[in-house]
Design goal:
CATH superfamily of the domain at 15-94 in chain A: NADH-ubiquinone/plastoquinone oxidoreductase chain 6, subunit NuoJ
Strand order of the largest sheet of chain B: 1-2
Order of helices and strands of chain A: HHHHHHHHHEEH
Oligomer: heterodimer
Radius of gyration of chain A: 32 Å
Distance between the termini of chain B: 86 Å
Distance between the termini of chain A: 98 Å
CATH topology of the domain at 15-94 in chain A: Four Helix Bundle (Hemerythrin (Met), subunit A)
Number of strands of chain B: 6
Radius of gyration of chain B: 30 Å
Structural class of chain B: mainly alpha
Order of helices and strands of chain B: HHHEEHHHEEHHHHHHHHHEE
Helix content of chain B: 55-70%
Structural class of chain A: mainly alpha
Number of strands of chain A: 2
Largest sheet of chain A: 2 strands, antiparallel
Number of helices of chain B: 15
CATH architecture of the domain at 15-94 in chain A: Up-down Bundle
Strand content of chain B: 5-15%
Strand content of chain A: under 5%
Shape of chain A: elongated
Number of helices of chain A: 10
CATH class of the domain at 15-94 in chain A: Mainly Alpha
Shape of chain B: globular
């Protein structure tokens, strides 16, 4: 088919593929390590983006251009973007704390992680050493996209539909949990809000600001009405009313 | 799928990857120069057109017709102080505009500018490269371009940019869905994802014979897939952050959104990426829906219209037309509110797109039926749809009470209203003075006037 198929033809590695691999493989590893080591959550996510982009190029090298592009569009473009969205809301100064809650946990994690990586790596190496890939030309015979589509909509159609049903259920569930249902009667449009504002019993003007005195300019200090009383409407409801001393509540004379 | 009759000048995937290195380099340079020149001229074009729409001349001092205005602005921008906010994340702050520009420019590499031409004896397509999933490459770059804006907003370390970045993340992810779905209709009709293949598929319209005349029906997908075209264009306006969807940099709400803290060359890079993205997306639309480099109808009567270097002219003509539409939208429409914008994307564009794709799939699945059956099925479907829209029970509108009735039914003690007829009765405290004056040069009798 195209040059992409030729690149990954069974059993031989072309020069271009090798060069691309040796440039991108260290970058992918760097991204993976950086993701674990970065203190800042957003930096972690960015390192992960680097690894995912490298993976996308690897897929293209392996004669799977469609899956490579989908990797970039779906994972890097959409899913990581939503991750970033949440991380940005967390705040930019949020960093990992380095206090170990379990003693020796970090050392154990490093040892076990390295051991697991070694096991998987050697296992894969021994399993795939000297294996000749066959059938790539047949699989990509009528085009990469068409080949994937044929499999998805014939052999794996049931698994595919089940997965999509699962994902939709999860999405709907998340929406139901997060959605605040408001009854139609409670919904106020602009005209209703305006009418409620001018209804008798409601003062349509702005509320009085909190008091600003020579002794205190706190927002918890209530303002004074023209007749000398303090008004609760001038301070936010969540703030406790500040207890003023007698000196503070006394009207400030100018005749001293 | 109709077998597409390929003309000699239509490149296929097999024609790519055979160029010598200097030709590849030349093509890349050409795409880059197109991007930069498009920005220089695009900013001037936009300011002139918006100026005409606002009945003022626009920039007309630097160079002929003010053509060098953007260059002057760019040079000025380059010599400005580059401010790095103290709370900024330095590395990310530096890379964000770079990501934006790189993504916008690189997407141009799979856009076909023209057919096979001969350059110094080499027959080569006027396109940097093409792959079997070229359309997805453009989508991938446009989805990566979001990172520039989002990271720029986050790394600035202040509130307005962060809000702009958050908005743009939500906006672009939402409108990317619509964009991808609109392209699906093109894939289904063209049967390929390579940009040169899609252009070739649009070059060959179905031939109809009506009353002895051989008429070439239009092959452009803007006509065949009109709903997709409209939704796609709306989506790319959202995707390029242009008015009326320029919420990430809404001046009236967020100062300048994600680029508030940027100055000097970094700000220039953001500007560059915005205009390059506008041109890239216009070129992408031309490729997908407007026949690419194929000449429009009256020109096709001339047999040499689609050969040699001429198609590049048609291509750039179409791109300029679309850029004009972008500018026109900006000059005409007010900015949408954020919730309206999101509702439009998810509740209008997305369902419409899905329904349209289903209808199109149905139409394609009956394509190999006999003509009579096909017509019957389509007619019955269309008839049912028509009847349903005709007899759909409409919600009965309650008669709104008149203003006077509303005013009369207000509870006792309501806020005082001015009189409805707006005739303010004269205050009894006003002293009425009658001024007797000698008429100046009027022949009429003595005039009295109330003061």
């Amino acid at each position: 088919m195209t040059s992409a198929t030729v690149l990954a033809a069974a059993g031989q590695v072309s020069g271009g593929e090798e060069v691309t691999f040796w440039i991108l493989a260290p970058l992918a590893l760097l991204g993976a390590v950086g993701m674990v080591w970065a203190r800042n959550a957003v930096h972690s996510a960015l390192w992960l983006v680097l690894t995912m982009l490298c993976l996308g190029v690897f897929y293209v090298l392996q004669a799977g251009p469609f899956i490579g592009m989908v990797q970039v569009i779906v994972y890097t473009g959409a899913i990581m973007m939503l991750f970033l969205f949440v991380l940005m809301l967390v705040g930019r100064d949020a960093s990992d704390s380095l206090i170990e809650t379990l003693r020796g946990q970090r050392v154990a994690a490093v040892v076990l992680g390295l051991g697991f990586a070694g096991l998987v790596g050697t296992g894969l190496y021994r399993a795939l050493d000297g294996v000749q890939a066959v059938g790539l030309d047949e699989a990509n015979g009528e085009g990469n996209v068409q080949g994937i589509a044929r499999l998805l909509f014939t052999k794996y159609v049931f698994a595919f539909e089940l997965t999509s049903a699962l994902l939709i259920t999860a999405a709907v569930g998340a929406m139901v949990l997060a959605h605040v249902e408001r009854r139609k009667a409670d919904r106020m449009d602009q005209i209703a809000t305006m009418k409620a504002r001018f209804r008798p019993g409601n003062y349509p003007g702005p509320k009085p600001g909190p008091g600003v005195y020579a002794t205190s300019s706190s927002v918890a200090t209530p303002a004074r009405l023209p007749d000398g009383r303090l008004t609760d409407r001038s301070i936010p409801e969540i703030l406790p009313v500040r207890e003023l001393t007698a000196e503070e509540t006394a009207p400030k004379g100018t005749d001293k | 799928m109709n077998p597409v009759i390929l003309a000699a000048q239509d490149p296929t995937l097999a024609d790519f990857g055979k160029d010598p290195w200097w030709l590849v380099l030349g093509k890349i340079l050409f795409a880059f120069v197109v991007a930069v020149a498009a920005t220089l001229l695009g900013v001037w074009f936009e300011r002139r057109v918006v100026g005409r729409m606002a009945v003022r001349p626009g920039p007309n001092q630097a160079g002929p017709f003010g053509l060098l205005q953007t260059l002057a602005d760019g040079v000025k921008l380059a010599f400005k102080e580059d401010i790095l906010p103290r709370k900024a994340d330095k590395v990310v702050y530096f890379f964000a505009p770079v990501i934006s520009v790189v993504c916008a420019v690189t997407a141009l590499s799979v856009i076909p500018f023209g057919p096979m031409v001969s350059i110094f004896g080499h027959r080569t397509p006027l396109q940097v490269t093409d792959v079997s999933v070229a359309v997805l490459v453009v989508l991938a770059f446009s989805s990566l371009a979001v990172y520039g804006i989002v990271l720029g907003g986050w790394a600035s370390g202040s509130t307005y940019p962060l809000l702009g970045g958050l908005r743009s993340a939500a906006q672009l992810v939402s409108y990317e869905v619509t964009m991808g779905l609109s392209v699906v209709a093109v894939f289904m009709t063209a049967g390929t994802m390579s940009t040169s293949g899609i252009v070739a598929a649009q070059g060959d319209g179905t031939r109809l014979t009506i009353g002895g005349f051989d008429i070439a029906a239009p092959g452009w997908y803007a006509i065949l897939l009109l709903p997709s075209f409209i939704m796609f264009f709306i989506a790319i306006v959202g995707e390029t952050n242009r008015a009326p969807f320029d919420l990430p940099e809404a001046e009236s709400e967020l100062v300048a959104g994600f680029q508030t803290e940027y100055s000097s060359l970094k700000f220039a890079l953001f500007m560059l990426s915005e205009y390059v993205a506008m041109v890239t997306m216009s070129a992408f639309t031309v490729t997908l829906f407007l026949g690419g480099w194929h000449a429009p109808w009256p020109i096709t009567l001339w047999s040499g219209a689609n050969e040699g270097w001429w198609p590049m002219l048609w291509f750039f003509g179409k791109v300029i037309m679309l850029v004009f539409v972008f500018v026109w939208l900006r000059g005409t429409l007010p900015r949408l509110r954020y919730d309206q914008f999101m509702r439009f994307g998810w509740k209008v564009l997305l369902p419409l797109n899905l329904v349209w794709i289903m209808v199109l799939a149905g139409l394609r699945s009956i394509e190999d039926w006999q003509t009579r059956d096909r017509l019957l099925v389509t007619a019955v479907g269309a008839g049912v749809l028509l009847l349903a829209t005709l007899f759909w029970p409409s919600r009965k509108k309650e008669l709104k009470p008149s203003l006077q009735e509303q005013a009369d039914t207000r509870p006792y003690g309501s806020f005082p209203l001015p009189p409805m007829d707006l005739q303010v009765p004269p205050s009894p405290r006003t002293k009425r003075v009658l001024a007797e004056r000698e008429p100046a040069n009027v022949v009429a009798g003595p005039d009295s006037r109330e003061v």
